[in-house]
Amino acid sequence: MLNIMEVHETNKMIEQEKLDVRTITMGISLLDCEGSTVDELCESIYKKITTYAKDLVSTGQAIEREFGIPIVNKRISVTPISLVGARVCKCPEDFVKIIHALDRAACDMGVNFLGGYSALVSKAMTPAERMLIESIPQALAETERVCASVNVGSTKTGIDMDAVRLMGEIVKKTAEATADRDSLGCAKLVVFCNAPDDNPFMAGAFHGVTEGDVVINVGVSGPGVVKKALEAARGESFEVLCETIKKTAFKITRIGQLVAQEASRRLGVPFGIIDLSLAPTPAVGDSVGEILEEIGLEQVGAPGTTAALALLNDQVKKGGIMASSYVGGLSGAFIPVSEDKNMIDAATAGVLTLEKLEAMTCVCSVGLDMIAVPGDTPATTIAGIIADEAAIGMINQKTTAVRLIPVIGKGVGEVAEFGGLLGWAPIMPVNPKGCETFVTRGGRIPAPVHSFKN
Amino acid sequence: MNKAIITVVGKDTVGIIARVCTYLSEHQVNVLDISQTIIDGFFNMMMIVDYTNATVEFATMVDEMEELGEQIGVRIRCQREEIFTKMHRI
Fold it and tell me: Could you list the residue ranges forming a coiled coil in this record (chain A) (predicted)?
């Protein structure tokens, strides 16, 4: 029988420590959408999404109320549009028509983001994939809720450097196209290496080709809960510290598992995975940086940060794996700068630099996330940063991503405002030395030798 | 059996349990267990109830209990039991 302390513990986690189910994401395959023209295809896509997702938001709200756990976002992810539109799209503008259909579906379903305006080009690009990539600046400037992602490399295939160079330019153009909103478009664009097929977190969510027709993935998060638990382990050894993180991660994941099963049952849609990631928000008490500081750093970015993050990430996974049989996606700790109060502070103070963040991405959940850089950063430099990050993912067999925002018209020392969950970010300095000769070589970086591990 | 947990937290006053129980009996919700303490001067109650035969929708019950709490000046939450058992029991 439950006791009053356990009930209070759960409710305290939810009310004071900001434990939440970050997202219920419905993945929908669009591979069977038909149409001999772009307009017909758009109609077919709109129809499929709105048919499958019509009860998504209301079901999420009902679960939220009955269990008393906040479910912050209800989202949709779809098959990479470069595959869906390959047959009928003849120019980048055709792809823009599709993104408008997606945006309309997202608005009508009441979801805040829809992911999947994506291309998977880890080895090379088809003409359709190139067109989709070229359409991204216009597409993201003209729509509100659709997120784009491009996978430019993998451990098995190497890195497509043509795509990397192109993405450097696309990030820059997207920034210019949304210059009036602090280059907000770039906050909806991620460049991946080793992108997972079942990630429910935006902006990188898409419904991979290995997935079924429709699936429910759930992302859980609770940096505040972990931070609070660690306060009780101050001054204790690493063993106690790890044990505490693990136990907390277990409890958090169990909530996700419950919500996922309930959503899956009510919607009649199979359950895919729980993504247990500590995802911060700009609110006080909901920060991954704060956890790292609680582990023992004066400020995040100080020596020891990478080790602390590695420890945190691993313990989160160890705790989560016992709590749900299907832990997938990215699972770990996200370190977006603009969305994390303590990261913002550390970056403003100059303690947290781009180079330190890069080192941290070797052991974190994803990569260089939501980092504002000067608007005059050359496209080739952005491509160089993307290449560095993709190389870390490729060699270490992990997912890495880049979501850089060159804020047009602003420089180091200024602040970019994105609003809401996306937060705000100080503009961080970028190494001024160029890498143009490197990124313009063309072709691809071959896969590392462990691709023959079979 | 469909179990729910009702928690009541707030400043102590006469008749809190009576008001909550009256609501539950009026709607055919059976009380299985009650534990109550005063923590830091605050009234703290947890009830385990069975709402299998309830005459209202569960979601409506959640809302109405919350309203009742506002009338009395305490915070009443009504949640399905699974959220607690899942978290605390392997």
Answer: none
